[in-house]
Task: structure prediction
Amino acid sequence: MNEAGIEKVYLRQSFFQIHLVDMSLFGSSGIRGIVGRDLTIDLASEIGSAVGTAYDRVILGKDTRTSGDMISQALVAGITSAGSDVYSAGMLPTPTLARAATAFGCGLMVTASHNPPEYNGVKMWNPDGSAFDTKQMNHVEGLISRKEFSRPDWRGVGKAFEHLGAIESHIESILKSLGTFNCRVVVDCGCGAASVVTPTLLSRLGCEVFAINSHPDGFFPGRSPEPTEDQLKDLKDAVLRRGADVGIAHDGDGDRMVAVDERGRFVSGDRLLALFASRYGAKGMVAPIDASMVLDDIVEGPVVRCRVGDVYVSEALKRSKLEYGGEPSGTFIFSKETYCPDGIYAGALLAKMAGSGPLSEIVDVLQSYPSSRESYSFDPSGRKVLEAGLAKEMEGVKCDRLLTIDGFRADYADGWFLIRVSGTEPKLRVTAEARSEGELKRLKEIYGSVVRTCLR
Result:
């Protein structure tokens, strides 16, 4: 895509940023916070009331977190009090719930995804598997802020039902899509919700499966719910010990997937984004502003950039009518399957690829550039001050182009860096990439000065 085309994409996205500034509840992936402090029973009930006011027949699921039952029951109370029926699907992964939403007005998933166990949240899904878009999020937040809930009398309250079969339906759909194949796979579900789907699915696909951290446990005793490289030593060891073709790791709710190749090397979400695009000949794709510029080099069609967050990826996929998109965090959306990031489908697709030849060889032929990803914690009460300080500091940064659709991205001839405040955690995230180690070092010096000043 030419420079002008990129600018048009960025300008369209900035419209959504303007509208999201006023929203205090929604982050880049639903509503999320520490249980009892940010996410309370009262708030959960109001979320349910707002959704029950706007939508009939809601399907509800939860991940393994210890607060899942508490938040779910508050949502049920709110939904039914507004006159809508709710169907509880129980503990299951987010992509399983999103696929099951097909037959309902909408779906609610109680999860904090990759966040630590003290967090929980609510993700909202449309019947096509896409997350609630900006307009829908604004509508729900408006109902909550104005307390404009439907309140029928005793004759009109909704009913609560149990919904069975969502997990089997998800498994069957992937079996139909991928067929059977041979592969030796080690699966690390992080004691999250994917524990009840991925090992069974891979076995039924014909794989020899070795599972670790695959017993549901809301304390996440095996490792952090976020499958970063430093958390996957056990997976790397198991792949080498078992002589496996691939190792697959999920986050807490199964919408993410990262991997380890047969040599025990970590394969990041960024590499997997490029791998799927290259292997399956994507004719264009959607990726957030923090994804590698390698995508621009290898994808034949346009690479449409959007804000960070799967909701914005799915929004852009719908507008562009492209079939593939994802994020470096390990989320992948194949729109022919669903508009929900499906780490379980992506993991099975990768296993099929690894079963046909050494994954390391496929990964190694991909172009790569030196890069860096860092996170800095800050006091949540100082978020607005931090954001204002960041804006002021970035005004003085000299670069070829400064993009502000999500944080501040400084583009240069041979690299770029992005500084943004996370939409899900009190963290300042910094990503940088360059065509040489020397240029990356120079970029680190520039953004390092900005970060130090902002976090004083």
Notes: The chain has 15 helices and 21 strands. The chain has three domains: 24-164, 167-364, 371-454.
